[in-house]
Amino acid sequence: MKKDECFELGYITKTHGLEGEVSAVFDVDIPEHYADIESVFIEIQNQLVPYFIEYIHSANNRLIVKFEEIDGVEQANPLKNKKLYLPLKALPELDEDQYYYHELIDYSIHDQGLGELGTVENVFDMGSQMLIAMIYKGKEVLIPIQDDIVKKVDKQQKVIETALPEGLLDLYMEE
């Protein structure tokens, strides 16, 4: 499995107990959607390695995960701070007017006032907000994903309609 065929489900924070369990965070909107997964991929030395799940349960606002064949702290310890991945096909289906951020890559950006601007190169999570990255006149431009800026996402045509604030592009064009 290649990393670009997966999405980041979450990460392991620490070991839990003495039986090889780990404490994990599922960094998704609805973690309960993933309560019955049978396996995850963990990135080890730049390779995604499958780990089969014995069980997952919730305790004190966190998830406790027990992987098959991980039977002690010494086996679980190397998994601390590792990211958990699932194949993109494991994502729940969304309504027509909803989208996953990774889907926006390669969409065209069309501004209501400025016309065609470019193509989405990447989407960044800055913690407090998501940003679309595009190349405009040779410069990287970051566009906040907010309702007042991103007006419409057309999944059929792969077009994002925006209403950029006046002067936003000018900020990036100045040397």
TrEMBL record:
Cellular-component GO terms for this entry: cytoplasm; ribosome
Keywords: Chaperone, Cytoplasm, Ribosome biogenesis, rRNA processing
Pfam families the record matches: PRC_RimM (PF24986), RimM (PF01782)
InterPro entries documented for this protein: PRC_barrel-like_sf, PRC_RimM, RimM, RimM_N, RimM_N_sf, Transl_B-barrel_sf
Database matches in SUPFAM superfamilies: PRC-barrel domain (SSF50346), Translation proteins (SSF50447)
UniProt remark on domains: The PRC barrel domain binds ribosomal protein uS19.
Name the record gives this protein: Ribosome maturation factor RimM
Originating species: Rapidithrix thailandica
